[in-house]
Description:
Blueprint: H1 2-20, E1 22-26, E2 31-40, E3 43-48, E4 52-57, E5 61-65, E6 70-74, E7 79-82, E8 85-86, E9 91-93, E10 99-101, E11 105-108, E12 115-126, E13 132-144, E14 148-162, E15 169-185, E16 190-201, E17 206-210, E18 213-222, E19 226-241, E20 246-262, E21 267-277, E22 285-296, E23 301-312, E24 322-333
Antiparallel strand pairs: 1-2, 1-5, 2-3, 2-11, 3-4, 6-7, 6-11, 8-9, 9-10, 12-13, 12-24, 13-14, 14-15, 15-16, 16-17, 16-18, 17-19, 18-19, 19-20, 20-21, 21-22, 22-23, 23-24
Amino acid sequence: MNKMWMLAVTGYIGVTAAALADEVLFKSGDRLTGTVKSLAGGKMLFDSKVAGPLALNMEDIQTFSTDAPIEIALADGSTINQKISAAAAGQVAVDAGRTLPFGSIAKLNPEKPAWKGIVSAGATFVRGNTKSETASVGVEAARRTDVDRITLGAGYYTAKQRDNTTRDNSTTADNWFLKGQYDYFFSEKMYGYGNIRYEKDRIANLDMRLTPGLGLGYQWIEQADLNFSTEAGANWVYEKYQDPDETRTYMAGRLAYHVDKSFNDHVKAFHNLEYIPSFERIDTYLVNADIGMRAAMTARLALEAKAQLAYNSQPSSGRDKKDLRYILGVGWTF
C-alpha cells in the first residue's frame, strides 16, 4: 500500500513539473522543455532541463509556450507581461486568445538599460640606477537602449624620469582628456550622433583642444561577442597652445570606426580609430587611435593591455607629431 502511494505521489510530481515547464515545439516535431530566458535578434536563449543553456534559431521553431507570465516587447514599441501559449505555426497566443506572429515580437525579457564599462588604473615605479614612474587612469562607460546610446570616456597619463647626469627629475608626459557621444538610431543600423572631446597635453604645449561634432553612423554588427560600427561627420576644432602662444580654429571632417571582439567569456579585444582632417588645409589633421586586450580575472576585475596613439600633423613649434603610449593596468568592470 505504501509503495503504491509513493508511486502515485512521484507520478503526480513528475506530471506537475512537466506541466509547469516552458516548452518549445520545433518544425521537425521535436519538443524541448525547460525555461525561456530571452529572445532577441532571431535567437531564443533557452535553459533546457536536459541539455542546459541553448541558443535556438527562431526559424527552426514552430511555436512555444511558457508556464508563467513573461515580459514581451512588441515590434510596435509596446510591452506586455503575459503567459504565452502555443498556437499555429509561426505564432503564439497570449491572454484573451490574442495571437502574435513571431515577427511582431521584438524581444522576450528584454535587458534593462544599464551602464556598462570599466575603470582602470596602472602604474610603474623603477628605482636604482634608473628612477622613473608612470601612472594612468581610464574610464569607459556606455548605456544602450533600443533607440539610443550614450558613450563616455576619460583618461589621464603622467610620467616622470630622473636624469642620471644632473640628478634632476623631469616630467615626460602629462595629458588628459574627456569625451562623450550621443547616438540616436533612426533604424536598426543607421544612427545620427553628436560628440565632443576636450583634451590637454602639457608636454605638447597644448593648453586645450575642443572638438565638438555631428554626423551619421552605421552599426554593421551588434552582437554579444562582436560589434562593428563606422561614422562620418564634421567637427569644429579649437586649439590653444603655449610657448609660443597660439590659437587655431578650423572646420574639419571626421571618419571613425569601432570594433570589439569577445573570444570567450574571459578575453576581449578592441580597436578604435578617429581621423579628423581639416577642410581648409590638406596637411592638417588629427588621429586618435587605440588597440588592446582585456582579460577577466574575476567577475569584476580584469587585466587590460593597450596602446594609444595621438597624432597631430601640425604640432606646436619644437614638438613631435606623434605620442604613442603602452599601458598595462587592472580594471573594475561594471
